Amino acid sequence: MINKTVSGPQAALEGLTDGMTLMLGGFGLCGIPENSIQEILRRGAKNLTCISNNAGVDDFGIGLLLQTRQVRKMIASYVGENAEFERQLLAGELEVELIPQGTLAERCRAGGAGIPAFYTPAGYGTEVGEGKESREFNGKMYLLEHALHADFAFVKAWRGDTAGNLIFKGTARNFNPMMATAGKITVAEVEELVPAGELDPNHIHTPGIFVQRIFEGKNYEKRIEQRTVRS
């Protein structure tokens, strides 16, 4: 059986260069590929287009890449937790494409499924629809949205095997399975890496055919954006 294991994030990101388009799984700080983001930061690749649900926070996640001005464009659905993102956007230093959250998920999924474009009612009649083709179906207007692809897709899973099969845990699944299918090179970092054949096939969320490189991550912080507790 093919073994897709690499030694760590340095080997996993081999070939990453300036100007590439990256998908990064996660929702807020939940399920983000922490080790891969740190390696992107260390490599210093510039002029990146990052496709992610959001831009993290100022001092963690994709927010770290914004601080070092490595990101040229963000394609996201929510950006409200990052003050540096707001500053760069208002100053005209960062290109931003805001997409309805469901549309973003489907554009990633379509990219992995080989579907070039699809129609959705989300955003019709708003700024989201400006300049986009529209069409009426059964008396309702829809926008044409194009699939998203990436040079690298970085995802984070709970468990994985050496063949690249992945299992996500709870809400940390979020955008990870869709993005895993849409990268030319998909890098999976996992909390626990086991030999091929040890995962129950019925529990696998992402088949290994979509994953090119996998490694066991270390030192996960798993920060919480907003902690709400009873007084």
UniProtKB/TrEMBL annotation:
Signal peptide: none annotated. It holds the Pfam family CoA_trans. It comes from the Bacteria. Keywords: Transferase. InterPro entries: 3-oxoacid_CoA-transf_A, CoA_trans_fam_I, CoA_transf_BS, NagB/RpiA_transferase-like. GO terms for molecular function: CoA-transferase activity. NCBIfam families: pcaI_scoA_fam. Belongs to the 3-oxoacid CoA-transferase subunit A family. PANTHER family: ACETATE COA-TRANSFERASE SUBUNIT ALPHA, KETOACID-COENZYME A TRANSFERASE. This is 3-oxoacid CoA-transferase subunit A. It comes from Hymenobacter actinosclerus.
